[in-house]
Amino acid sequence: MDIQTLQILDSSDDCIQLLDLGGRILFVNRGGQALLGIDDVTPFLNTYWAELWQEAEQQAASDAIARAAAGEVCSMEGHRPTLQGEPQWWANKISPIRSADGNVEQLVCVSRDITAHKQIQDTGKQTEERLRESEGRYQAIVNQAVTGVACVDLEGRLTLVNQKYCDITGYSADELYQRRMQDITHPEDLPRNVELFKRMLIEGTPFEIEKRYIRKDGSIVWVNNSVYAVCDRGGQPQSVVAIALDITERKRREAHGVFLAEIGEAFSRFSTADEIMQAVGAKMGAYLQITTCAFADVDEAHDRVTAHHGWSSPEVPSIVGTFCISQYLSNEFVRASRAGETVVVCNTQTDPRTDAAGYAALDMYSFVTVPFHRQGQWTHYIAICHSQPRQWREDEIQLIEEISNRIFPRLERARAEAALRQSEERFRTVTATVPQLIWTAMPDGRVDYMSDQWADYVGLTPQQLHGWNWQQVTHPEDLPNTERDWQHCLQSGEPLEIQHRFRHHTGEWRWQLVRGVPIKDADGIIRQWVGTCTDIQGEVDIKEALRESEAKYRSLFDSIDEGFCIIEVLFDATGNAFDYRFLEANAAFEKQTGLVDVIGKTVREFAPKMESHWFELYGRIALTGVPERFENTAQELGRFYDVYAFRMGEPEERKVAVLFNDISDRKRIEDERKRAEQDLRESEEWARLAIQVAKLGGWRLHLDTNLVEMDERMREIWGESEDTVMVPLPQVLERMHPDDRERVSTAVNGALEPQSAGTYEIEYRIVWNDGTERWVLAKGQAQFEGAGEFRRTVDFFGILLDITDRKQADVERELLLQREQSAREEAEQANRIKDEFLAVLSHELRSPLNPILGWSTLLLSGKLDTAKTTHALTTIQRNAKLQSELIEDLLDVSRILRGKLNLNVAPVNLANKIRGAMETVRLAAEAKSIDLRFTVLDFQLKNEDELKSSSAAAQSAIQNPKCMVWGDSTRLQQVVWNLLSNAVKFTPAGGRVDISLSSLTGNSSWAMGEASLVGTDQQIINNSEKTTDYAQITVSDTGKGISPEFLPYVFDYFRQADGTTTRQFGGLGLGLAIVRHLVELHGGTVRADSLGEGQGSTFTIRLPLLQTPLQVNRNERSPQQSHDLNGIKIVVVDDEPDTRELVVFVLEQQGAQVITATSAHEALLVLPQAKPDVLLSDIGMPEMDGYMLIQQVRALAPEQGGQVPAIALTAYAGDTNQQQVIAAGFQRHISKPIDPQALVQAIAQLIHSH
After folding, report:
1. What's the domain range around 846?
2. What is the pTM of this model?
3. Would you tell me which of 159, 265, 1021, 1221 could form a disulfide with 1229, CB atoms 3.0–4.6 Å apart?
4. pLDDT tens figures, 979-1003
5. Contact criterion met (CB below 8 Å) for 409 and 373
């Protein structure tokens, strides 16, 4: 007991005694010594506490000691005299003190003097309260010495803890004082803990609970908590003392014990090895929280390890398969496993014994392997793996070792049981299917088993066979010899083989061949006899018939072309054949051998040096009776024979019949073939050299191991390392492109099919480790042996050729063909459109000529009156104007296509232009009773008439800056007029045409129709791009509408919906194409929408509004920066004087020094001398355009201006044009018409960036 605990105990006013489990006093505190009136406690130590009491109370004291030793908290009252003989009453409470494993090892007794209580009742009540308070306080103090102690208020907050409690929870004392007991209690244990806590506060009863704490590091610790309430004098709980004992190790042992019991249950529930491994593997995966559990068999004799599928998480690679030990395991692991050592790796990426990359590829970052040895040999091991680094606990390792010791004997037994079941099943199958009668007998000869065929043979039921014996059906003449031979075999242990007759159930006596063999144990003692009885009556009959028919068939043998003879084999005293005598020979014998008059003579008389192998063969056949077919040479006769020989007659006659044929000619041909094959093998070396020259890879699939052998070129094509020779077939398939694997597998399996031709040819892709794809051509040939159902595959080999370049050429050729086809289709489509356009053009130009020529002819005749003359001139004027408009449209298209459509740009009021366009089409609209309306949405003015009638407000709307854009006034009015005239033209009488003007804010994506808008005069939702203010003009009608099929082509040149439109409404199909181009030249967009034919149409134009000095971009918080170009030297190249003068004026206004060039050639002369800071060049110029100019500029040396920053000015404003400009060598692209402010800003930014 430590000093601190002694000081605490000695400070108590009560008598505190420590007792052993038998009740002997081990310790008394100083307060107790004072109460007892003793100075020296030594005489009291090791005395029994119960003996201190009066006789009537000693039994109660002994009972309390026994109950406390059993784990209860006991109380008793009693009295004993003091040393002075005065009576003294004591209230005692005896409590158990538990060890770390939960067992009671000591008792503590708290005794309080209650003599005054007994004398004065009121005083006694107060004393009792102090006793309860003291008991709780000092009980906790005593327990503090060996367990964790914590004081907790009634809300669960920790107010006092000792160091042991800190060690258990992993928190410091200060950290615990910031927490409640609920914060560190496991959520699953909290409800029960709270329930007991509340009951204790109500009833005052201490409680004990086993629960889990969540440590600071997140780990779980099990504790046994003893909880006491500390009450005030009024009996009300004021605080709680919790005594915590760490029982984690015990809980783990209990859990391991339960788990091992579950494993044992799985052993008994499953019978096959696969079922056991799967069940145990899954349980270990769940219990240990791992990702792989594998069981492996080790065959060191063949350098082979087979990993079985125990269990693995779906997301980790499988490690199942058969591998070479030297390739699968490192030398260190092999050494440790052979020595029976468990291998523990907590982090494969840092452990020096492991290949970090290899284990990472298997998603294996920690593991434990436990080897299993059988008779000193390493035969198995278990592997427990996890996909994260892990600190394996000692109890976990011991558990894995215990499972290893249990499962592998069980697996061996399961496999042995399976083999036994299979053997028994085979035995039952054999006995049920073979015609023989099967029997077994005990060592003394008593038959203990007969197969079902016995019952069929003798005419009994299987049940009647019990107690029946074979002697009952044995022929009386054969029985003595049979019993004699059977007894001899039983005594000598020799196999039994006899022939005798059995009586068939039909009464017929049939010959049986009886064979029996003894089954002996390791000590050579016979344990059982197993035998068969084979019905040979047929053979006996055949032999008899054979003897009778020999004479009949002798003439047949004499007539055949093959040589035939019957010989008698001669043996010497040692039993070796040394010669044979000819007994009979057919007519062909002489022709086949060249020997004459051989009957009765030996072969050595004709061929003294006859080879000994002839005698050995015929001697063996004569002795064994086993016929043989062979080919052999007789050099003495100078011939080669194909021979079939079989025994004739009885064995003792030593007769052999020989049927033979002279195959010398055939053998000569075979020798020639072999020489040719040798020549072929020599040529194979040349073939291999040719393969190397052709850069062909060679491969061979080893069918017995499923490994693919690769030569050097094959490894190079396949992307394998130089030291790789053999690659498992699954790994080879894994390297193939996923889309090709199934196709290749089907081709390989088809080539390996024994009934196939064995040819293999396929193209597929392989994927290198770096992701590179390569196309290869594989050819192979399988080789077979045998025929029919016995034909089998024995070899599979071939070559591999890298055809990636050829495949790329094929793809490029296909792409080129597609481009050519697309170009041809586009050209054909252009020709069709051109033909249609020329037809329409002819019609549209000729139609106005008809009234012009007609009326002019009538005018020249002078026969028209004044009214008709006026009508004729009006008609001629109208049709001439129509022709003029058609021609002007054609000229506009021509200018557009050549990039020479010029704009006279200035600030333009869109409202005025719309009104002007409306006035142009108003008469045509009124003629068809069409309601024509104009609305400015920003000011809620409903139509154009309201603008007329409104006073200052209306005029303010028209002059509002939001209606101002930078552009060509005439061209913009042409755009609006074109849309309005189309709307009036295609709207039936009584219809309606609406045109509206509004201002909106959005980015470039929105302007192109790729984003949505919040509302009028608001920003778009996605404000990630720079925003701009736009004017939006919308022209809607209730007219003919546009079909969905034609809508995508409505802005194409020379396109109209159909021929009917051309005939009914006229026109060349150019108006909307011109509208689109004019709008894009102004930096805007136009789109068409229609719900379909007959449902009207809507055209929407968006143009960037004029940026006044007072306007600021909404996305920028700082004021607009000024772009001062003072001192900046700029070369401007443009063949159009108007554009060139405008650019010069704008730049000089900003302080720039401007040098002009009217052509690209002139610019190349000016550039080296001027050495400008910036080059501005038009793209569409004659002779040498802007693209050619920038290419020649970039070819100049830097000191000659080759690196000058350049901006392209072009009327081609599409995305493709911008990309082409940047690719040519320009840094920026500015579309015409030019915004002066944007031009200056672009130059300033370009100079700043360079």
Report:
1. 830-901
2. 0.33
3. 1221
4. 998 899 899 999 999 999 998 887 6
5. no
